[in-house]
User: Which sequence fits this backbone?
């Protein structure tokens, strides 16, 4: 493996939580401005995590230490895989495994809110997995490989061939960033229906780990936008910023929906745009 | 100032309050007063909370609930008694079913009197609680 890849992985592991935390801070400030408030300081997410790290160690079930650590490690690992231009399917499967550990952490507590949160998290993983594989299939049709590396060295940016898949990706991002209306298992909004759902029984360091893992995941999915605009760094940066702003707007204007609506709406978008896009590509014989 | 007082997450419990103070608490948490400036979030979950805001004089029915919630909040934690009923029992102090203030059940750090409290007084009380939170955190660190 090229030395550049190792450098890329190390850089991702160090920079992703910093950028993820800063983006979360931007999100909170922007959301506050939307509501004509001043909002918290930009570094608020870091204060939150630092505080959680120094809280008393209190567990509803000590096994959650293993599960939350596995969640964080696997998400960071998936990110490193992506940064080294690794196999897209591998990244998606290891992300799914990471979420399984989060679900187990929620199930390990004997608490009804945590259990409902875990069930909904499980559901969101189940909705999402086929969509992500569809995305990987799109990349395969364009490059003839599941490696993100091949997607990045394309002459023509992926968005030209996969505009429908990109629209699906934005919808998926809403769920992955835990934004409304798809924040059914847990959300960053204060006081919600499930009292934080999947994380409701986690406290202190366990919660801090879940938060850092969320920053990693946010960066993983935002950096996947690069795959659509490979070869055009400025365009990629603009696309990432625009998509992120769009997510904040969506988050602020839509109330949460039920899990049934989540399944329906995400899959209607996927079937119309995603599958449509792949079928057209398939009929045209793919690019390779 | 450490991270403890920069990110205080609130938990509100109504221990037989008349709802007057509760409405004022909710008013203080609305965008108008913007308590998120201080990093304050209303959690509704004892496992995530740092500051426990209690209203009402605590009756026989919710004594155990109050104690249970208090025990579920990980250290360092601060209790703020909001309103005169929570502070001393208020006009209900002599009632047969009223304990007479939150501090008869759990230790209270900050008292915010008033019937009902003004959101400004409440926010000041919370900001005062941050100082106590800071002290408790320092004591915890020293113990280690």
Assistant:
């Amino acid at each position: 493996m090229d030395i550049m890849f190792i450098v890329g992985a190390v850089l991702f592991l160090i920079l992703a939580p910093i950028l993820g935390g800063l983006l979360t801070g931007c999100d909170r400030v922007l959301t506050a401005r939307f509501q004509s408030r001043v909002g918290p300081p930009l570094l608020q997410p870091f204060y939150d995590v630092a505080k959680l790290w120094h809280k008393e160690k209190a567990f509803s079930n000590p096994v959650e230490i293993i599960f939350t650590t596995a969640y964080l490690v696997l998400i960071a690992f998936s990110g490193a895989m992506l940064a080294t231009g690794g196999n897209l399917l591998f990244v998606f499967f290891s992300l799914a495994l990471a979420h399984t550990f989060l679900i187990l952490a929620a199930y390990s507590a004997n608490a009804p809110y945590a259990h409902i949160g875990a069930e909904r998290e499980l559901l969101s993983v189940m909705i999402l997995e086929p969509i992500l594989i569809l995305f990987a299939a799109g990349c395969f049709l364009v490059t003839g490989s599941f490696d993100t590396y091949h997607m990045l060295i394309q002459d023509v940016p992926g968005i030209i061939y996969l505009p429908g898949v990109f629209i699906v990706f934005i919808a998926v991002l809403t769920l992955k960033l835990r934004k409304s209306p798809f924040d059914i298992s847990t959300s960053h909004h204060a006081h919600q229906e499930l009292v934080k759902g999947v994380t409701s029984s986690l406290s202190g360091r366990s919660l801090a780990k879940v938060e850092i893992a969320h920053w990693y995941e946010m960066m993983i999915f935002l950096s996947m936008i690069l795959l659509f605009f490979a070869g055009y760094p400025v365009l990629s940066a603009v696309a990432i910023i625009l998509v992120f702003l769009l997510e904040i707007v969506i988050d602020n204007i839509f109330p949460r929906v039920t899990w049934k609506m989540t399944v329906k709406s995400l899959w209607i978008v996927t079937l119309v745009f995603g599958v449509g896009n792949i079928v057209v590509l398939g009929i045209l014989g793919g690019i390779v | 100032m450490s991270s403890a007082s920069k990110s205080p997450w609130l938990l509100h419990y109504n221990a037989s309050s008349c709802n007057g103070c509760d409405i004022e608490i909710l008013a203080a948490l609305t965008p108008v007063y913007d308590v998120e400036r201080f990093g304050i979030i209303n959690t509704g979950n004892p496992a995530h909370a740092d500051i426990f805001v209690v209203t009402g004089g605590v009756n026989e029915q919710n004594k155990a609930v109050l104690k249970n919630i208090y025990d579920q909040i990980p250290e360092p934690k601060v209790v703020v008694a909001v309103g005169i009923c929570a502070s001393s029992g208020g006009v209900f102090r002599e009632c047969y079913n009223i304990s007479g203030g939150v501090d008869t059940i759990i230790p209270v750090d900050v008292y915010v009197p008033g019937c009902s409290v003004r959101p400004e007084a409440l926010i000041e009380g919370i900001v005062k609680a941050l100082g106590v939170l800071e002290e408790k955190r320092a004591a915890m660190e020293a113990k280690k």
User: Anything to note?
Assistant: Chain A has one domain: 3-283.
